[in-house]
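=== How it folds ===
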Amino acid sequence: MAIAGRPVAVRLRARVPALTTRVVARLLSDLPVYAELPHEEIAGDIADIVQHNLRLFADVLEHRRAATDGELAQQRDSAAQRAEEGVPLDAILTAYQVGVAMCWEETAQDAGPGDLPAVLEIMDRILVLQQQLTSAVSGAYLEARQILDSQEHGGRHALMAALLTGEDLDGFTRRTGLRPAARYLTMALALAPHPDETGPGLPQGPGAGTASGPGSGAGAGVAARRKIRRIRTALDRFAGTPALTALDASGGTVLLPVAEPPRWDGPGGLCDLIAEATRAAGVPVTAAAETAAPDGVPAAVARNGEIVDLVARTGRAPGLYRLADVLLEYQLSRPSEALRGLAGLLSPLDAKPELLHTLETYLGHGLDRRAAAAALHVHPNTVDYRIRRIDRLTGLSPARPADLQHLSAALVARRSV
């Protein structure tokens, strides 16, 4: 196969050194991720694989055949190495496309009208080789990444299990080589269902999840996984490293390695993180957080779970909470003889659910009768009337400071017994 009277393969082999230099320079200028690789790697491995590809193309043209599996082994090895280094697959495939394009330009630059048959055949050979390279490189890269991800995931899972169970961490490190961080931000998350998980048309009864198509159980599963993935992305971005997570569609536990306890409020603080997670997932997120040393993780995780549960049971809004935000509820939720006694203060209202609801709403709105009336969809005078009835039935009135404390505590106690 010749262009302008000269064998293409012979001419291409003669130009391999100079063309290799040009291709490498183009990769460094067009692909920032390659420019960040060590110079010795660029001059060594990267230049070698470029040169190998150019010589392979010359062989393919000379013998008018596709590349053999053995001839693509070096490309597969190179792709696996780039996967270990964290070079993105799209950058690698772009690099191969750049090399092939420059090889084509070098080969066809002297072609004239009479060389059209040769040019068409060369183009056909190039397209076949590019398809082979893409397939070999992608397959090797993804296989390597799967192994690496499995190892990393297994290691993270083992570390999280050791932290949550209070395992001897020195022994764990000796056995696995994995060392815990100095501190962890422990978090409990409660995630509301996304509309796509519970929207109209989703199967609810026996056999749910067996249908397919929009609104099916499969669709709900996809929506739940998408919600969890977006939450994890927000957590990883905040921590700057993959978070240790045990999450399902309803929430779960998160451990983030931190050098110092993160700030609660302000730009880049934990409240911002939960706000970002809420936006990303498209659902309300309730969270409790506490920073702990590795040996304090089990207790911190247990407290976080109790706080999130208390927030849900007391009807508070979604958001980020700490123990200081629910001290009264937390203390009153501890088992004691006084708990049932406090709850019993409101037993005269058991047969009057509208009074109990009015009391909760009135206290929840800071004793603002108009706000409570608006929330209850009644006249403010109705709220006043009901508060007087509560006083007559229980002997307690929110208007008296001492009674107000007992009423608030009694409502918390009722939710805890």
Summary: Residues 134 and 258 are 40 Å apart (CA to CA).
